[in-house]
C-alpha cells in the first residue's frame, strides 16, 4: 500500500520536474539538471527558472541590440522597437 502511494507521489513529482525542464530548455539551460531540481524541489525550482534570463546565444531567444528586449531566435524584426536584423546581427550576438 505505502509503495503504491510513494510511486504516485514520485510520478507527480517527476511530472512537475518536467515543467521546469521544458522552461529551462527554452531558456537555453540544462534541462536534465533542471528536471532533477524541479522533481526534488518544485516549489523553489519553478519560480527560480521563471525569473532567470535566457542564456544569450542559446535556446529560443535572442536579445535585441537596440532595445535589449528578448525576442524569438528566428525573428528578423524586433516586436518591441521594429529593429530589423541583418545577416551579421546573429553572428555578433553569438560572439559577444
Ligand atoms: Zn528591439
Descriptive account of the structure:
- This protein is mostly helical.
- It folds into 2 domains: about 1-50; about 55-95, no CATH class.
- The protein is about 55% helix and about 5% strand.
- It contains 4 helices and 2 strands, in the order αααββα.
- It has helices at about 1-25, 30-40, 40-50, 90-95, and strands at about 60-65, 70.
- Strands 1-2 form a two-stranded antiparallel ribbon.
- A hairpin with a 6-residue loop joins strand 1 and strand 2 (about 70).
- Helix 1 packs across helix 2 (about 30-40), helix 1 packs parallel to helix 3 (about 40-50) and helix 2 packs across helix 3.
- It starts with a helix and ends with a helix.
- About 15% of the residues are buried.
- Zinc ion binds near residues 67, 78 and 80.
Amino acid at each position: 500500500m505505502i509503495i503504491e502511494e510513494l510511486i504516485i507521489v514520485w510520478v507527480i513529482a517527476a511530472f512537475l520536474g518536467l515543467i521546469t525542464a521544458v522552461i529551462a530548455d527554452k531558456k537555453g539551460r540544462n534541462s536534465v539538471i533542471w528536471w532533477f531540481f524541479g522533481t526534488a524541489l518544485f516549489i523553489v525550482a519553478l519560480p527560480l527558472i521563471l525569473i532567470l534570463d535566457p542564456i544569450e546565444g542559446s535556446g529560443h531567444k535572442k536579445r535585441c541590440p537596440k532595445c535589449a528586449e528578448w525576442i524569438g531566435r528566428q525573428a528578423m524584426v524586433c516586436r518591441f522597437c521594429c529593429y530589423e536584423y541583418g545577416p551579421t546581427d546573429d553572428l555578433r550576438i553569438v560572439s559577444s
